[in-house]
Amino acid sequence: MDMTQTEKQQMMATAPIPGLIARLSVPTIISMLITSFYNMADTFFVGKLGTSATAAVGVVFPLMSIIQALGFFFGHGSGNSVSRKLGAQKLDEAEHIASCGFFSALICGAVILVCGLLFLDPLSRALGSTETILPYTKQYLSVILLGAPYMTAALTLNNLLRFQGSAFYAMIGITTGAVLNVILDPIFIFVFDMGIAGAAWATILSQLLSFIMLLIGIKVSNCIPLRIRHMKYLPQTIRQIFGGGLPSLCRQGLASLATVALNLAAGPYGDAAIAAMSIVMRISMFAGSTMIGFGQGFQPVCGFNYGAGNIKRVKEAFWFCVKTATVVLVVLGVLGFIFSGDLVAIFRKEDLEVIEIGTLALRTQCVTLPLTGWIVLNNMLFQTIGRTLPASVLASARQGIFFLPAVLILPYFFGILGVQCAQAAADVAAFVLALVLNRKLMPTL
């Protein structure tokens, strides 16, 4: 039997920090890795169809990022507020915010579905398709769009569960869909001979299963119920969801824009360059998901104790997470650097040019990977305690404020090397920004 709300609140307020963070972060890390795995599985199986098909999955990824951005916007926007309201013992307000976040996500996903299908061709081109990639992009994208409403809402449900201390149920919901995705991908692509469209159908059917499982998780885990009658767009509710979710929207939304810019920057160097950077992005995202998942285990502890006025416990949790994350990322960075060529070859071993371009790009990102722990955890600290402006600036740094100029300017001077090094350069700049912002925040707490 799952814990009651009272027992969850007691756990957040008194349980030892290392064990509590581990309890909340391990399921969340698994959830984030599984979320990354959806697109990674498509990239692996579609890689058997050819370089242009592999590149098409990378071209569609920005649209997937937009769906994720909205899901995290409403999930973090409502979840951050819910955790603080529970800490302040304001259950009615928490119920209202949670319902508004969930149903708003469904509506926004439906808007993406309609607009995407109406403008399928220009959207495919705007995402970075070349003439050889375009047919594959349209096949894949037209199916992915069908799942937009419940894919957006599923991410919101995932975050509502973990912000209420039920990360285990969030993990079960995401993992169930991922297992189905791995099973369906080869069946649809090769057995049913559906090609790249088969990969898309496998993804949206798997995401539908995750959505259903997460809805069940809300009910069986004694989380706040979601009711349409609670969906009242009062100015106060909008401000709270917007304030808590804006940094996530900036982070995920700019990830989408960054991917488009990366595809356009790699385009002049051929389909192999687009495919290589697409593969590297998947691998880096998989590694980064470990960090984000760990940080998301920190957020409910931070939000609850900040709402309860226990600032000492907030700081203890933050510094524990920073130290742990840095050690783990150093190990991952070293392993990734050593085995970078082998990792890229997993996806496209038939194309030596893809492997060559991807290996150097992955190694540059592995060098700066340990810096991302500090960046992400500061971002989540600012976001969870309601410091919207600095949180949004920091969330925009890695793949927006610093990455976009880097990926546009560096190739002009260094050619394809500039494309390969752009993310590493942005990470260094974002790390320095996080140092400055943290130094200003800590004395004010």
Description:
By secondary structure, this protein is mainly α. The chain has one domain. Helix content is 85%, strand content 0%. α8 runs antiparallel to α9, α10 packs parallel to α17 and α11 packs parallel to α14. The chain is globular.
Which keywords apply here?
mainly alpha
Summarize this structure briefly.
The protein has 445 residues and is mainly alpha-helical. 85% of the residues lie in helices and 0% in strands.
Topology:
Layout: H1 5-14, H2 17-46, H3 51-87, H4 91-118, H5 120-126, H6 134-144, H7 148-163, H8 167-191, H9 196-220, H10 235-266, H11 271-307, H12 311-338, H13 340-348, H14 352-368, H15 372-384, H16 388-401, H17 403-414, H18 416-441
Helix pairs in contact: 2-3, 2-8, 2-9, 2-11, 3-4, 3-6, 3-7, 3-10, 3-11, 4-7, 5-6, 6-9, 7-8, 7-9, 8-9, 10-11, 10-16, 10-17, 11-12, 11-14, 11-15, 12-14, 12-15, 13-14, 14-18, 15-16, 15-18, 16-18, 17-18
The major pleated sheet works out as: none
Overall pLDDT metric: 86
Number of strands: 0
| Number of separate domains | 1
Beta-strand residue fraction: under 5%
Regions with little confidence, pLDDT below 50 for 5+ residues: none
Give the count of helical stretches. 18
Pfam families: MatE
InterPro entries: MATE_fam, MATE_MepA-like, MATE_MepA_subfamily, MdtK-like
GO biological process, one term: response to antibiotic
Keywords: Antibiotic resistance, Cell membrane, Membrane, Transmembrane, Transmembrane helix, Transport
